[in-house]
Every structure is written in structure tokens, then in C-alpha cells.
Design brief:
single chain; about 100 residues; mainly alpha; Multidrug-efflux Transporter Regulator, Chain: A, Domain 2; 3-stranded antiparallel sheet; about 55% helix; about 10% strand
Length: about 100
Amino acid sequence: MTGSFVMLQMDDLRQVVTEIVEEVCTKRGLNEKPSNDEGEWLTREEVCDKLHITFTTLWRKENEGVIKKHKIGRRNLYSKREVEELFSSAMNADNADVKQGKG
């Protein structure tokens, strides 16, 4: 078996590699960005810090349908608006428990 040898200028090689990487990213959905319709996005670390929960609890809440994750490439992002609504509803529930003498 004989091989082929191709000579390229550095700029031409850079362009070919860029085109291939862009094509692969497009096929795999890695270059998709969350829509700005929902506003800002939080990482799972930021969500856990805000809600004072562990990664395991966040995972469990995702599976229960309490919070929705948006998969962007390999990252899980969460709508800041949804997290703040969840946080405020949890605070309201805690305040109701305190008023009823449960807390």
C-alpha cells in the first residue's frame, strides 16, 4: 500500500482543521448556546450553593422533575429564573411551617 503525501501551507492547514472541528461540533451539538429567552444560566455548582444542597440532592430533584436541567454539550445549565422560583417557594414553605409551629 502506498501513501499519499500532501503539502499544505500553514494557513491552509489551519483552515481545513477549523472547518472539520466546526463540522464535528455542529453534528454533536457542542456549539449550541442556551437561548436568551430564559435569561441568565447557572451551573450546578452555583445552584447547589444558592439552594444549600449537595450535587446528589440536585440530581434527585432533577429526576423528580422539581428542577429542569438544560444539557449544553456536556454541561448541565439551569435557568436562573427557575432556580429563584424554586428557592422562593422553598422559603415560603419554611415560613408557613414556622408559623404553624412545625419548625
